[in-house]
Amino acid sequence: MKKVMLSAIVAPLLLGSFATSASADGINILSNLKAKGEIRPRYETVNVDGSKLSDAQAYTVRTKLSVSGDLLDVEGLSANVGVISVNNFGSDKYNDGSATGNTLYEKVVDPQKAILANAEINYKTGATLLHAGRGQVNLDNQRFIGTVGWRQLERSYDSVFVANNSIQNLSVLAAWVYGYQGVGAGATADTNTVLLHAVYKVNNMLNITAYDYMISNVHDTIGVALTGKADVSGIKLNYRAEYATQNDASMDIHNLNDTNGTVGIPGTKGQADADYYNLDLGANMNGILAGVNYEFLSGANASGTETAFSTPLATGHKFNGWADKFLATPTGGLEDFNVRLGYKAKGFGKLLAVYHNFTADVAMTAGTGTSDDLGSEFDALYANAIPGVNNLSGLIKAAWYSNGKVTNYTKDVTKVWAQLDYKFSM
What are the angstrom distances between the C-alpha of 208 and each of 171, 198, 269? Predict the structure, then answer.
């Protein structure tokens, strides 16, 4: 770990020296070097009412550093290399989710580990961008494809993609994702996944997004989302109306022996028949934030012909409550009706509260018979810049999940976070 951290610190110096000496020989391999980084210390505690496990007490620090520059003096060609290192400095009073996690404590999925987070080459010509290698991929609101940036060991994707916006108001992307590392993967996980994504901007009030995410051995997710903004009598409104359906997987991995970390099961064809809805309306009136949201993920039926809607590559923490009770969709599906209220202003920062009410699409096993009661949750956060220090911010955040009647959802959960975040560039 110390060697990795040392490498991260001296990387800009090494690359700078390499670029200079190469230039002296007439071959400018890397030039116009830029480095940026982040140091993010965090305390997280997890309490599960009635659990036999001790409360988690996780003290972790995320360090990110990346170096980018122009490559081979070719116009539009660039390279980027970066690392993420997570350290707990010997504090192990939490289960980090790894094979060696301390199972006497509740889970906080922030293992002490360092990974190569970026190793990519990009080429931009006109309105077209070509990418190859490891980097971060976040599409739309990250409901289906995201990096889970909230967790300390952020996910990186190994991919090849082309993006183009040569047609006015139209942006398209086609990607092949062949692996990923970070949240949800021990070693590098295989996933022969194809992503097709397009956004057409009609005007400020209407954007049309269409997508087809073909995750190998799992399912195909095909959907459309309408989003936009409007100013009505000084009130800034925004909305989202989205529908998606999941069908049998059209992609598969033909390696029966490789099961480590894969999203799907290699050698098997994923079967799916599920639906998704997301309706959201938000408002900002002189800094006062308000919103209402309804999200529906269909559940499996008794005959097995329909499956529960799932989002294995999403930034799940953003959705269905910060207590993370629903990172995996319940067998009976999920209906999440939630309202939010907050305030945001320069100097004051952001204060936000969210209330969720959870029910199942299809009744599930409960203590006495069946039920669709999956509980409720109240979330709150306060975030602001720290005065006197440029690029330093702080956050206090909490989630209180109240139990429902469905089996496995009958225990209250409390999570609290305190975090600093310092970003820098050179």
Answer: 11, 8, 31
- 5 closest CA partner among 83, 90, 70: 83
φ/ψ (deg, to 5) at 313: -115, 20
- Mean pLDDT for back-to-back runs of 10 residues, the chain (426 residues): 39 45 61 94 98 96 95 91 94 89 94 94 96 96 96 95 97 95 72 95 96 94 97 95 95 55 59 94 97 97 86 96 97 97 96 98 92 97 95 98 96 98 94
Contact in structure between 118 and 148 (CB atoms under 8 Å):
no
DSSP 328: S
For residue 111, the tally of other CB atoms under 10 A from its CB is 21
Residue 345, CA distances (Å) to 199, 286, 307, 354, 394 in order: 30, 8, 44, 18, 15
**Two tokens, residue 389:** 């220090």
Which residues partner with 224 through β-bridges? 210, 243
> Closest Cα to residue 262, out of 307, 312, 212?
312
Cα separation, 117 vs 234, whole angstroms: 43
Query: Tokens in use for 199?
Result: 């956004």
pTM of the model: 0.89
Structure tokens at 312: 């294995």
